Amino acid sequence: MAQPLVPELLRAHLAELASRDQRADGRGQWEGRELSVEVGVLDRAEGSAKVQMGDTIVFCGIKFQLQTPYPDRPDEGGLMTSAELRPLAGRHIEPGPPSPESIEIGRVVDRGIRESGCIDTKDLCIIPGEKVWQVIIDCFAISDDGNLFDAFGLAAIAALHNATLPGERFDVGEDKKLPVNKTPIMCSFQKVGGRFVYDSNREEEVGGDERIHITLGEDDHVHSLQKGLKGVFSASEFVEIMDAAKQRCAELRKIVDSL
Amino acid sequence: MSNSGASDGRTLAASGSLVIPGDKISSDTSGQLGHGVIKVNDELIATKLGYLVEKSGEVSILPVHTAYFPRPGDLVVGYIEGMRSNIWFIDLNAPFNAILPMSLAPMKIEYGGTRDAMDVGTTILCRVQEVDEAHSSVVTMKGMGLRKVNSGFVDTIPPHLVGTISSGSNAIIQQLKDASNCRIILGANGRIWVDGEPEGIRIVRDALAYARDNQHSTELAAGIASQLANGNGE
Amino acid sequence: MGYGDVQMIDENGNRVDGRKAGDIRPIEIEMGVVPVADGSASMRWGTNYVIASVYGPMEAHPRKIQRQERAVLDVRYNMAPFSTTDRFRPGFNRRSREISKVTADALESVVLLELYPRSKIRVEIEVICAEAGTRCVGLTAASLALADAGIPMTDMVVSVASGKINGVVVCDLNKEEDNYGAADLPMGVLPNTGELVFLQMDGDLSPSEFQEAWDYNMEAALKIHELMKEAIANKYGGGQ
To answer: Which fold has domain C27-232?
Structure first.
């Protein structure tokens, strides 16, 4: 991605607002943007979701392929996550090979899904030692107005819950729903104007500093953490963020589970 | 349904109607050709998606989306994007960056002293001095009121709204100043510098967001007036 | 060619999806679907779903693509991994590269490039779901996105492909017809003048069949042009 020009005035203004417990778009410190989640939106994907958070819009498609399992894990299938930041989604996204940012996003989303164990790779076994399913999670940005991490994370888990194993098409049995036994949710926080806020939009992303991404499962189990960009944070800041994450993750989990 | 009159090409589409590129506006090519209108084989054709405007014999299009193209004399709000030893590069929210040569800086500088004087990320008020055929420009900071700004906030509106905001008897910009108690400087490039208390800045930003969402409304000034009146009740 | 045994049109002239020879697939157009872009549009066309966005004009980088006297169009056509039944691998793809180029050639024929010397205009076309004729949908959606971005053009571009199935010339091929049919003739038409900015063909058409397919494309282009105007009016109102 092109390095965005960060006007000094923007940073100063965001700091001024933060000192008064305000944000540029009028939201509360832990308040997210307007959210919508739809599933089953891509005809050629075996599972899919579209997430809109403010002006950030993403798709996630689940595709399945057959593969031979690794010799040391003959009854386990595979899971792969790819996050594509296509130039369609923003002026700042330049054509070319995947940027470090997009690679990071893909890996953070992958870890949140994988480490939660929401997919048991043994459930992906068709014939041990010979044939297993590979689940491919393709996250795709349509419009980047900030916080693609959470948009992709939400779209990915919603799409997984929507997915059907295409046994008939691959001639290995009947179609059946992909077993997904948990709903891990990622929440991202960014230091803007000197304090952490939830769900930064692009203006806050550009004018802000370090980020922390937290993926929680049921009962507030922690499944993955990632701190990005330069900056420091304190233990007490982390506790505050974690409290906000627990609440927001629970809210989002209810939404996904009800789809 | 659009009534752009493209069906037979002989009727003049009504002023104010929506036209798309390629629509025939008229067979009468005697008038002046304004923005977004070209003459092809004795007919006037729209080249932009927008609203037809007929004023004093000139036919033009008010596009639904505009970019800013610098013109000499424009007062603009810019950001310093980079520099060399004797010039700065200024982001003007235009297709091309502008150049601010050391000789047109507001302060005395020596060769190599550009970064110390004004670093990347600085916001400036400057004036467009000259423009080449690629719409690339030279700006100056020598002149009244042209300077670095160190406080406040810069918001952005589509360039075609700049005229709407600043003109008229109940000018929107005056309404904003009165309601917010802020200093407001409107750049021709659609950037607006607002300085004052955060509450005042918020009032202005909300009004500008409303303006962006309703940019094609004919009742924009009235809409903003009522939005300001209601907003103050928060 | 070679799959002539697959029955795709019956003796009553009904195609597999119920259309008659001259019918186009259902089309839905939406403007401004990428809020952060300068202009954008989406098209649902049969099962196709394509989104196009435009950024610019802007300074042309890298330097080597810059032209002194006019703007260049930097067009990218791409298929999303979930757009096809078998996952489409991301990365360099020859077909996508070719389509990007012919799309740029078509659009450069209508955009008033001389107004923006040394600039570039980015046109991003993403196929979200594919069902035959994606290059036509992409080109049409791109012209909508350019209009939405306020880029001046001499006309809109409407692109559609006709072909031949079981010896019958039909308009707007769907997936099976494209796969098993005997010819494919995609065209990019300027609806106000009937001029062409895009033309490809492969298969086998006699001179009269070719004329039939050509005429189908021209008629379809006019119909689709009306749909474009409706969709644009829905977004921006019929007038002030």
So the answer is: Ribosomal Protein S5; domain 2 (3.30.230)
Select from 3.40.630.30, 3.40.50.2000, 3.30.1370.10, 3.60.20.10 the CATH code of B153-231. Answer: 3.30.1370.10
| C134-146 pLDDT tens trace | 999 999 999 999 9
DSSP H or E segment with residue B78: strand B75-83
- Nearest beta carbon to residue C36 from set A44, A61, A90: A90
Give the residue extent of every domain in chain A: 8-257
From A26's Cα to the closest Cα of chain B, the distance in A is 8
To which H or E segment does residue B117 belong? helix B114-117
Check residue C62 and give its pLDDT.
Answer: 86
Write the residue in C147, C155, C230 that is nearest to B1 by C-beta: C230
Architecture of the domain delimited by A8-257 = 2-Layer Sandwich (3.30)
- How close, in Å, is residue C87 to chain A by CA atoms? 6
Q: What is the pLDDT of residues A103-144, one digit of tens each?
A: 999 999 999 999 999 999 999 999 999 999 999 999 999 999
Find chain A residues with C-beta within 8 A of B151's C-beta: 9, 12
The pTM (predicted TM-score) of the whole model is 0.94
Q: Residue A85: CB partners within 8 Å, gap ≥ 6?
A: A1, A93, A98, A99, A101, A102, A105, A141, A144, A148
CA angle C204, C210, C212 (to 5 degrees): 130
